[in-house]
Amino acid sequence: MSRQAQEVGPTMVGDEHSDLALMNYLGATKRNMLGNHFWEYYVNDAPRTVLDKLENYGYRVVSMTGVGQTLVWCLHKEDNNVPPGRDVNVDPVKLQPRSELPQ
């Protein structure tokens, strides 16, 4: 019987310049670790859970690598080809245009 490694969180998902709506959608918490001169967002979810959420948000994995005991994924989100001036704001929880949300 083979054993499959299952990594758990925390999973780093962004820095202080990350999209706030996306960080809220992921349920991320902002923190500053002692000795670091920057802020980071993290979640307690396993990486596979975060990747599933990001796929639902329109991102896809482009590449992945290991650095020591750390795994790093590079993701990309295609341009929606929305004409300039069009409102593309979405409710990150329901993933529907804000204009279609109940008032």
TrEMBL record:
One of its GO terms (biological process) is negative regulation of biosynthetic process. The keyword Cytoplasm applies. It holds the Pfam family GFRP. One of its GO terms (molecular function) is GTP cyclohydrolase binding. GO terms for cellular component: cytosol; nuclear membrane. It is found in: Cytoplasm, Cytosol; Nucleus membrane. Keywords: Cytoplasm, Membrane, Nucleus. Residues 79-103 are annotated as: Disordered. It comes from the Eukaryota. SUPFAM superfamilies: GTP cyclohydrolase I feedback regulatory protein, GFRP (SSF69761). Belongs to the GFRP family. This is GTP cyclohydrolase 1 feedback regulatory protein.
